[in-house]
Design goal:
CATH class of the largest domain: Alpha Beta
Shape: globular
Number of domains: 5
Distance between the termini: 57 Å
CATH superfamily of the largest domain: Histidine kinase-like ATPase, C-terminal domain
CATH topology of the largest domain: Heat Shock Protein 90
Helix content: 40-55%
Number of strands: 25
């Protein structure tokens, strides 16, 4: 029997059962004698065992079977629940979750990694003390050995295709430097794909990347462990590449190997000869064109995506959707009847009424489809109580997590992406924000620290707040670190406001931590958080008060598919500006514009408003360059504003966002495109990139 048809159901139900198990274990830790909770965990383990056995996943089945044995003895009163048993059950949960994720991303359970855990469960069942297997070396020695094995050069033999081979040979002939760069990320790195993107972006400033293993696509989709390899061609030497990589945080180790000497390549068979012109073009390092990369692991494209492709929908919402589709069919028939009618006056009026009716239906249909895509943010929030519990024990702190607004609904796409940034913010709050119990008592604070995670809708946005009652951000320390690293000048530091200094935390690799812990200090990795949030069309704001804690506010669009936008003309082109970024629209006299430090500004409502011309930002032409009065669209990002000069306003319109694809995904100032009613394409302006 082909079981693949049931795999999606297996994923959905397994995740739901594991989520319930996690919540019950957290409650059971405080009420170990509650038999109802114990029975519920037993039922969940039994259900997962049956599902996994049916699907042929034996590792999961064997582990849950051992869990059942222990839980059954507890139910029978032969074993008493204690902290050790709860910890082992949590380990079982982690192992089961790991198996399910591995099946989803790789298509199989992988190796049996729960052998030691099953031995622990057997020891509890038999009433014996568990003695772990002897290890040959300490954890530090093993880590060093692994690092040496992974990062050793192993000569410079690399398996690449004919195209990359020709590029390397051509580079050597043209006295350019080809390098093999091996990168291993920190095991604690939360957003691997975003970190890989930053590394590639950093290297592309001084080189052209011609090969990636895994492929660039797999790196973007996070289909890799912690290490990857790049082959690049550059005029620079290895010391410059090393300097660039050292400025990127969360890199465990890297190795730069020159391919110029002792170059040997094992070519893959049946690969077409590379076009000589393409090789020449690739080696012209002055241009900024996208470099084609060899794809070594084509088969990984066929693997399942990282996130699930299904969503559970309330039956009432589906009924509403069905009714609206029925209305569409009725209006289609009505329009056909009008088209065949002969009475001109009646036809015109009927057509007008029918179009109005159609507009109402399409608006309702849009709302209905939106609601089908919406899921409660509770799905993300549920993973954090366990994380806070583990970190509290690890750091020796008393920390309470308060959740609010779990019922707030957001787009499914946002749900899949927002989890990792929130994990990063919460970990930083607990590690670096909240003081240890002794320090809190000395500062007249409660011994127990608090982290609040709140979500609520705000117009067309969803707001998520991560707040702690810790020590707050040390503004002076951040400023001094910025001066030390050369990010700001002494003159800038004198006039910068606190909110501008706090923004330095989001600079790549910035950290105020005196020593880097496993969890890291506030600031490490915040550049990745900001990159991820802004890729979703959102913004991050920070509010802090010394001694009283910090609050990170994330503001995200309600949907990533259909938005309200203002259409404008700049020269012959039409552009769309998202309405949720627009503060107001006004006109200003051209002679009111002044230049300050080579930037155009205007005094508007007693504040200084920077002025930018959209034609200059997007390298276009303007038809109003010499006009006495400009049309200005004032856009916002947090509490900052800037005036964008456009030629003409067309009007407000509901638009469907279309991606420009991976080759055009990094164009500054452009967030996507939309197809207008006449079939023409209008680019959607990313106003955040102008700040």
């Amino acid at each position: 029997m082909d079981m693949n048809q049931y795999i999606d159901i297996f994923f959905e139900e397994s995740k739901e059962h594991l989520q319930n198990m996690n919540q019950i274990l957290l409650q059971m830790e405080n009420n170990p004698d509650d038999m109802n909770m114990l029975n519920e965990i037993f039922r969940i383990a039994h259900t997962i065992k049956g599902m996994s056995s049916t699907m042929g996943f034996q590792n999961i089945a064997h582990l849950t079977h051992e869990m059942e044995n222990v839980l059954d003895l507890i139910r029978g009163g032969k074993i008493t629940v204690n902290g050790n048993i709860i910890d082992i059950l949590f380990k079982c949960f982690d192992e089961l979750e790991s198996y399910v994720n591995h099946i989803e991303t790789q298509g199989s359970e992988g190796e049996d990694t729960s052998a030691e855990l099953k031995k622990e469960l057997e020891a509890i069942r038999d009433g014996k003390a568990y003695v772990p297997d002897e290890v040959a070396a300490s954890v530090e020695e093993v880590a060093c050995v692994l690092e040496e094995v992974e990062m050793s050069a192993k000569g410079s033999s690399v398996e690449v295709n004919e195209f990359v081979h020709n590029v390397i040979v051509k580079a050597i002939q043209n006295e350019l430097n080809p390098y093999l760069v091996k990168v291993a990320l920190n095991p604690k790195c939360m957003l691997k794909s975003a970190r890989a993107y930053i590394i590639i972006n950093t290297l592309e400033k001084v080189s052209e990347i011609v090969y990636s293993n895994p492929s660039i696509e797999d790196l973007e989709d996070e289909k890799f462990d912690l290490d990857f390899e790049l082959i690049l061609v550059t005029k620079a030497d290895a010391s410059l590449l090393s300097k660039e990589l050292k400025d990127v945080s969360e890199i465990e180790a890297f190795d730069i190997i020159s391919l110029k000497e002792n170059y040997s390549v094992n070519k893959e068979i049946s690969i077409e000869e590379a076009d000589e012109n393409k090789v020449e073009k690739l080696l012209t390092l002055e241009n900024n064109e996208e470099v084609p990369t060899a794809n070594k692991n084509e088969e990984t494209k066929n693997k399942r995506g990282k996130t699930g492709k299904t969503v559970r929908v309330d039956i009432d919402r589906l009924d509403n959707l069905m009714n609206l589709v029925s209305e569409l069919i009725i209006i289609k028939t009505r329009l056909e009847d009008i088209d065949g009618a002969s009475n001109t006056n009646a036809t015109g009026q009927n057509m007008h009424d029918a179009i109005e009716y159609l507009e109402r239906i399409t608006t309702s249909l849009h709302d209905a489809v939106m609601k089908v895509r919406m899921v409660p943010i509770e799905r993300v929030f549920n993973r954090f109580p366990r994380m806070v519990r583990d970190l509290s024990k690890e750091l020796g702190k008393d920390i309470s997590l308060f959740l609010s607004g779990e019922e707030t609904e957001v787009d499914r796409t946002v749900i899949d992406e927002i989890g990792d940034p929130l994990i990063h913010l919460i970990r930083n709050s607990i590690d670096h924000g909240i003081e240890d119990p002794e320090t809190r008592l000395n500062n007249n604070k409660p011994k127990n620290g608090t982290v609040r995670l709140v979500a609520y809708p705000d117009g067309n946005s969803v707001v998520i707040e991560v707040e702690d009652d810790g020590r707050g951000i040390n503004i002076e320390k951040v400023k001094n670190k910025g001066l030390e690293r050369g990010i700001i000048t002494p003159q800038q530091s004198q006039i910068m406001e606190d909110k501008d200094i706090i923004q330095l935390l989001f600079h790549p690799g910035f950290s105020t931590a005196d020593k880097i812990s496993d969890i890291s200090g506030r600031g490490v990795g915040l550049d990745v958080v900001k990159t991820k949030i802004e890729s979703l069309g959102g913004v991050v704001e920070v509010d802090t008060k010394a001694g009283n804690g910090s609050k990170f506010t994330i503001r995200l669009p309600l949907t990533l598919a259909i938005i309200q936008a203002l259409l404008v003309n700049v020269g012959p082109e039409k552009y769309a500006i998202p309405l949720n970024t627009i503060k107001e629209i006004t006109t200003i006299q051209s002679n009111a514009i002044r230049k300050v430090q080579n930037n155009e500004v205007v005094l508007y409502r007693n504040t200084t408003l920077p002025i930018l011309k959209l034609s200059n930002l997007l390298h276009g032409t303007s038809t109003t360059e010499n006009d006495e009065e400009y049309v200005v669209v004032i856009v916002k990002k947090g509490d900052k504003t800037v005036g964008i000069v456009v030629d003409h306003l067309i009007g407000q319109q509901e638009i469907v966002i279309k991606s420009l694809g991976k080759f055009l995904s990094n164009i500054k100032g452009i967030a996507g495109a939309t197809i207008l009613g006449n079939g023409s394409v209008a680019l959607i302006v990313d106003t955040n990139s102008f700040f």
